[in-house]
Each structure stands twice: as structure tokens, then as C-alpha cells.
Design brief:
The complex is a heterodimer. Chain A is mainly alpha-helical. Chain A has one domain: ABC transporter involved in vitamin B12 uptake, BtuC (Orthogonal Bundle). The chains are: A mainly alpha, B mainly alpha.
């Protein structure tokens, strides 16, 4: 029993970081009032560029390049939605479509249709002391980014709720005009959040191709960006909630994959499809019960115009 | 230059720009010659090898590729209309994919389980798909109208619920085709011939009933939007809910109706796919047709005629994409063109500003002279 729990904990910790980073990316952007349905595309950009970069440079550096790629794609979204006040959902979806088809095109043009050549994975950290303790053992032997994923949500929470910058960020998503009255630049704050969100989503994608896998595969991230959106909503747009929801969803995934390989007879009773649908179903259920207005940023999706009131 | 053309100009320019950017992308990763050849093959794949046709006069050379294009275009018309109709009522339906999945499954089940003469079987299968798609969309409408849940979020969630349940449970579990003769097939059982769309040109082309059905539905949506009171009220509710309410229009009801119609159209796209080409629910839909609908609707300016023309254009490119494979360009390349075109259309205001500036210039130089 302990061994099963340990294996589950280990694979959850392996799978969760990508989802946690991407979810936080969504939260950052949306708390500033900019809808971010382009998380999937930003993750794909991060995953692809990191895998390609890792062919010619150390993998940790390649991860940073992947993050920049995520931010690069997010900047297109930012340019259209902040500078030109385009519909944020449209430009986010456009980013997804471009990343989906563009990734496939570049993959075929530069490598093979199925994936990039294998790269060196991120080094895994062996934690001293707990390495031999049963159960706690599962915490060791993960890439450094996995530990960052456990810390970052709390850091994000602290910044959002206990610093002037965090207050401004929240305000710009709730009442942008009030922020403007204080002489602060609404576009600048939103740009920061969108680019930061892109960096985080790119990081999530880069983790997929450099730590979870050792290459970029054709379908990466295969809908994980949308699961991040579900986690963001389920976590009520807060960093800690996002962390909890993303970890929970990642645990569900680990459980499903674990069951498929070790106890397929259980999946005959509870079909995989049910488990796959669960994160989205739970999110819908939560929304149905408590409604959305109570937790979503008030100015979410509303382009900011100086003159409008 | 009419009002209509001027409204379409940003879309046309966006598509042209996307074509240019994508051409450059091939030219950079391969070379200029391949880029030109790839575009030529895409065109030939979509409308047929025109030079060879002129030489030999064999109509089959054109009928086959045009049939493929029409098949793709039918799907794009329906998913595009689906998104456009919701838009008109002020709702953003990102869930066309999920609605299409449940609709396709319903058509496949109806086609395989029921036996009836074609005149009944085909309409019933289409109807089943429409009703299922509408029901799926109404979940999002209900969540929005009663609980204030934004439809973008709920439809994204509903997409994944639909895909998970259908692709990973129903079509591989309870509804999986019974393997016959040793080899098992992916997806549900094959539908009866009485439910299959008739081929309009016999064996030389896969052109089937789906294309005229899609065109007829486009006409229906146009009539509904512009020639009926309901459609007018729906547009009013979408443009200004407050004003519409003040004018005595039941905004919630119009929004729910539009969402149901939107879901029905996406569901019928599923029916066209299953009854026209696949003849079963294939393990998965293989392409994000529902997301294509967003691109088609917005490039087509959310208007039935614009959607139809855009869908025809991209239908041709999409069918031609398979021929690009010969040159080592992935067959999903036209989707890149489509995605970029959507991105450029999203910058509609940029185009309008640029166009206005161009028009404003000559006028401003004339003023000092006068």
C-alpha cells in the first residue's frame, strides 16, 4: 500500500509542475484582466523551442529560451488585445491555432513529423536525508523545477497580496480606471502580466519537453493548456487555489495512468473516459453551484479605454 | 466599391497576408522553388489539375478534387455558421468541437441502429445530431443565463467532457463496433447504407449530399437572421442587450435559442462527417473542426455569405493540403494559413486604422489648396 502511494506521489510530482506553471501563467494574466485562452499555444511554443534549443545548448538554458518563446507568443496576444483592444478570446484562440499548425509545420520541415531528436533531460536532484525514507523518498529525484513549482505559488500569493505591485495588479483586473486615476499605466501593468503569463506557460511547456519527456512530440501539450484553464477556474483565480487544483488534477492523471498499467480491471468498472472528463466536469459543477461572478476578476475580458467609464 | 466589399476588406487582406507569410515560411525552411511548387500543388489538389484538364477534357480530373474540397467546405460552413450564429446573439461559442463530437456520435448511432428507407433514415440521423448538439450547447447557455458562468469557460470545459466521454469511453466501450472476421476497426459500427449520403456524381467523386445540405443551412441562417422577426431580435439582443430589453425583447430567450441553433449546426457538421465520408464514428474526429469554425466565422465577418465564401476558400486549400505532402510539407499546412488569417483578422482595428489613414491622406492635402 505504501509503495503504491509512493509511486503515485512520485508520478504526481513528475506531472504536476508543467500544469502548475501553466495555471499560474493563466492566473497572472487573468488577474490583470486579460483573458488567456492561449495558454495551450504558449505551452506548445515553449515546449518546441526548448526542445530545439536543447540540441545546441545546455538544457537549463534551453528552458529559459523556451520561456521566452512562450512570452513571445503572448506578446502577439498582448499587442492585439492591449494595444488594439481586440477581442481577447479571439486573439487567444488564434494563437492556439497558429501554434498548433505552426509547430507541426516546423517539426516536419526541420526534423521528422513525429518529434525532435532526443535531448539531454534536466538533471534530477537527489535530496539527501529523505532519499532512503519510505514514502518521503518520492520527493527526491525530481528536476529542480519541480521544487520551484511547489514554492512559486506561495511566492506568487505573497506578491499578489502583500506588495504594492500585487495590489496594482489585482486592481487593474477589477477596476482599471481606478488604477489610472492614481497615475499608473493600465497598459503597462497588463503588458507585464501578459508577458509574465507567457513566460510561465512557456516554462510549463518547456518542462514537458525537457523533464517529463526528452523531446518535443507532435501533439505536445495535448490539451494540458486547457486543463490549466480548468485548474485556474477551479482554483478561483488565486495562486494557491490554482496550485491546489493543478496538483489535484495532476494526481488524478497519475492515478489514471497508474491504474491503466497496474490494475486495468478497475478501469473496466470506471472507464478511463470518466476519469479524463473529471477535471472539466468538476470545474463545471463548481461553476454551476457557486456561479462565476463571485470569483472572476471584474474587468476580465474588457479592453481598457481611457475615455470609457 | 460597395459597403459590403469595404466591410470584407480587412478579411481579404488578412487572408492574402497569411498566404504571403506562409509562403515565406516554406521558402525560408526549404527554398523558393519548393514554396511555389507547394502552393501550386495545393491549388491543384483543391480544384483539380486545370492544365491537364484543358489538354484532355476529362471532367473526372476536376470532379474528384472538387468533391474533396466540397466535403471539407461543408464541414467548415457548418462549424463556421455555428460560431457565427452564437456571435450574433452576443455569445462566444468555443464549444463547436464538443457539440460536433456528440452530434457525430448521435448520427453514427442513429445510422447503425435504426433501419428505415433513406428518405426517412437520413433526415432522422441528421435530426438526432442536431438535437444532441443543441442539447450540449444548451448546457452552456443555461449556465450562463442562470448562474452567470461565462460561455467561453463552460464551452471549453464541455468540449473536453465530450471528447473524453465519447473518444475514451463510448466509442471504445459500449458503442464499439463488434469485430467481424478477426480484424477490429476503430470507432463505432458502420452505418447502414440507407443512412449514407448519396454520392451526387457517382463513383468519380466523393461529392455527396453534405455539401448542398450545408449550403441550404447557410441560406436558412441568412433568412432567419435578416428576414425574420426572431432573427432581428436575436441580433438586437447581441448588439445591445440593454436596448433590446427596453424594446421588449426577451434577451435571455433569444440568447438561448441562438445557442441551441449554434449547437445544432455544429452537431449537423458531425452528421455530415459521419454520414457523408466516415460512415461510422471514427475513434476520434482527427481534426479540430470545431476550432476551425471560430476562424471561419471571424474571417467571414460572422455573416452567412461571408462564412460560406471563407469556408469554400479554405475547403479548397484544406483538400489541397494532402497534395503538399508530396513535397514534404505537412498536410496540416493550410491550417497554419487559416490560423494566421484569424490572427490578422483579430487585428481588425489595425486594418481599419491603416485603411482610414490611406483614405484620409488625399483629402487632407486637398484642404489647403481649396
Amino acid at each position: 500500500m505504501l509503495e503504491i502511494l509512493e509511486a503515485l506521489l512520485f508520478s504526481t510530482l513528475d506531472a504536476a509542475p508543467a500544469l502548475i506553471f501553466a495555471t499560474l501563467g493563466g492566473v497572472l494574466s487573468e488577474r490583470a484582466g486579460v483573458v488567456n485562452v492561449g495558454v495551450e499555444g504558449q505551452m506548445r511554443a515553449g515546449a518546441f523551442v526548448a526542445a530545439v534549443a536543447a540540441l545546441s545548448m545546455p538544457t537549463p538554458l534551453a528552458v529559459v529560451v523556451g520561456m521566452v518563446a512562450g512570452a513571445g507568443l503572448a506578446s502577439v496576444h498582448g499587442y492585439l488585445s492591449i494595444r488594439w483592444r481586440s477581442d481577447q478570446v479571439v486573439s487567444g484562440m488564434a494563437i492556439n491555432l497558429v501554434a498548433l499548425a505552426g509547430g507541426t509545420f516546423l517539426l516536419e520541415a526541420l526534423f521528422s513529423p513525429n518529434g525532435t531528436p532526443p535531448i539531454e533531460q534536466l538533471p534530477r536532484w537527489q535530496l539527501p536525508l529523505i532519499q532512503d525514507v519510505p514514502l518521503l523518498r518520492a520527493l527526491s529525484d525530481h528536476p529542480g523545477l519541480a521544487y520551484l513549482a511547489l514554492v512559486l505559488p506561495f511566492l506568487f500569493h505573497a506578491v499578489l497580496h502583500h506588495t504594492p505591485y500585487g495590489l496594482r495588479l489585482r486592481a487593474v483586473g477589477e477596476k482599471p480606471h481606478a488604477v489610472a486615476t492614481l497615475g499608473l499605466s493600465v497598459p503597462l501593468l497588463r503588458w507585464g502580466a501578459v508577458l509574465g503569463g507567457g513566460l510561465l506557460a512557456g516554462l510549463g511547456g518547456a518542462v514537458l519537453s525537457t523533464a517529463v519527456l526528452d523531446r518535443f512530440e507532435q501533439h505536445t501539450p495535448a490539451g494540458l493548456g486547457f486543463m490549466a484553464l480548468a485548474a485556474m477556474v477551479f482554483g478561483r483565480w488565486t495562486p494557491l487555489g490554482a496550485f491546489g487544483a493543478a496538483s489535484f488534477f495532476a494526481f488524478g492523471n497519475a492515478l489514471r495512468i497508474g491504474l491503466a498499467s497496474s490494475a486495468p480491471e478497475i478501469l473496466d468498472v470506471i472507464p478511463q473516459g470518466f476519469l479524463l472528463a473529471l477535471p472539466y466536469f468538476l470545474t463545471l459543477l463548481l461553476l454551476a453551484i457557486q456561479g462565476q461572478r463571485s470569483s472572476a476578476p471584474a474587468a476580465l475580458g474588457t479592453p481598457y479605454e481611457q475615455e470609457s467609464r | 466599391m460597395g459597403e459590403r466589399l469595404r466591410a470584407a476588406l480587412p478579411s481579404i487582406l488578412s487572408v492574402v497576408l497569411a498566404l504571403v507569410v506562409c509562403w515565406v515560411a516554406i521558402a525560408l525552411t526549404r527554398d523558393v522553388k519548393v514554396a511555389g511548387e507547394a502552393y501550386l500543388q495545393m491549388l491543384y489538389g483543391g480544384i483539380g489539375q486545370v492544365p491537364k484538364f484543358l489538354e484532355t477534357g476529362s471532367g473526372a480530373l476536376l470532379a474528384r478534387p472538387l468533391g474533396e474540397s466540397a466535403g471539407k467546405a461543408a464541414l467548415l460552413i457548418l462549424t463556421g455558421l455555428s460560431v457565427a450564429v452564437a456571435f450574433k446573439a452576443g455569445m462566444f461559442n468555443i464549444g463547436a468541437q464538443g457539440q460536433m463530437v456528440v452530434g457525430a456520435l448521435a448520427a453514427a448511432v442513429m445510422g447503425a441502429q435504426l433501419s428505415a428507407p433513406s428518405v426517412l433514415h437520413i433526415p432522422l440521423a441528421i435530426l438526432a445530431a442536431a438535437v444532441t448538439g443543441a442539447a450540449w450547447a444548451l448546457i452552456a447557455a443555461a449556465l450562463k443565463l442562470w448562474r452567470g458562468v461565462h460561455e467561453v469557460i463552460s464551452t471549453i470545459m464541455l468540449n473536453w467532457v465530450a471528447v473524453s466521454l465519447v473518444d475514451n469511453w463510448l466509442s471504445v466501450g459500449p458503442l464499439r463496433a463488434v469485430a467481424s472476421g478477426g480484424h477490429s476497426v476503430a470507432g463505432t459500427a458502420e452505418i447502414h447504407t440507407s443512412a449514407q449520403f448519396p454520392r451526387l456524381l457517382g463513383d468519380i467523386s466523393r461529392l455527396n449530399l453534405g455539401f448542398p445540405v450545408a449550403l441550404a443551412l447557410a441560406l436558412f441562417v441568412w433568412v432567419w437572421l435578416t428576414r425574420t422577426r426572431r432573427g432581428f431580435e436575436t441580433q438586437a439582443a447581441g448588439l445591445g442587450p440593454e436596448a433590446a430589453r427596453a424594446a421588449g425583447i426577451s434577451v435571455k430567450q433569444r440568447a438561448a435559442e441562438a445557442m441551441a441553433l449554434s449547437g445544432a449546426l455544429a452537431g449537423m457538421a458531425g452528421a455530415v462527417l459521419v454520414l457523408g465520408t466516415e460512415y461510422r464514428y471514427p475513434g476520434s474526429l482527427a481534426a479540430p473542426y470545431g476550432f476551425d469554425g471560430i476562424a471561419i466565422a471571424l474571417i467571414g465577418n460572422n455573416n452567412p455569405l461571408g462564412v460560406t465564401l471563407t469556408a469554400l476558400f479554405f475547403g479548397i486549400l484544406r483538400a489541397g493540403g494532402t497534395r503538399m505532402q508530396l513535397l514534404g510539407v505537412h498536410k496540416s499546412f493550410p491550417e497554419l494559413i487559416q490560423g494566421l488569417a484569424l490572427l490578422f483578422v483579430a487585428g481588425r482595428l489595425v486594418w481599419l486604422t491603416l485603411l482610414r489613414r490611406r483614405r484620409a491622406h488625399p483629402a487632407s492635402t486637398e484642404v489647403p489648396r481649396a
